[in-house]
């Protein structure tokens, strides 16, 4: 139970970090889309929400695909690919939420592409932080290593 709480906490913490990194993207989108300020949108949230969701989905994808390995043990290309998968899944949420329209709007393809790219880049940044040793939030084996270090069984 303690391991699952640690994993969930790590995913939420990574989500908050990604949300902070992605938050400036929202006002940039607002500047492009709404130059005259007529839309009443909290643009910072437009960047932060997909960042948080992408990080949580990335954490789940890493847990499923790389069960026995820590984030800092993975290669950059692998982490980037898993980040892109997470971004693609999050970017496709508007399609899953549904519309009866059979044609995809162009803006949706742009949004999916941007979220996928940002997610891959942020995943690579998370790997760089994890390799420093200070920010490895997805270390599922930490509890096992602590027990093993105390002479317990694995």
Q: What separation lies between the terminal Cα atoms? A: 16 Å
- Low-pLDDT parts are 142-154
Total domains:
1
- Shape from CA axes? globular
Helix/strand structural class: mainly alpha
Radius of gyration: 18 Å
Indicate the multimeric state: single chain
Spell out the helices and strands N to C.
Answer: HHHHHHH
Strands, count: 0
Mean pLDDT over all positions:
81
Biggest pleated-sheet summary: none
Name a few traits of the molecule.
154 residues; mainly alpha; 7 helices; globular
Describe the structure.
The chain has helices at about 1-20, 25-35, 45-65, 75-90, 95, 105-130, 140-150. With about 150 residues, the protein is an all-alpha fold. It is globular, with a radius of gyration of 18 Å. It starts with a helix and ends in a 5-residue tail after the last helix. About 30% of the residues are buried. Mean pLDDT is about 80; it is low at about 140-154.
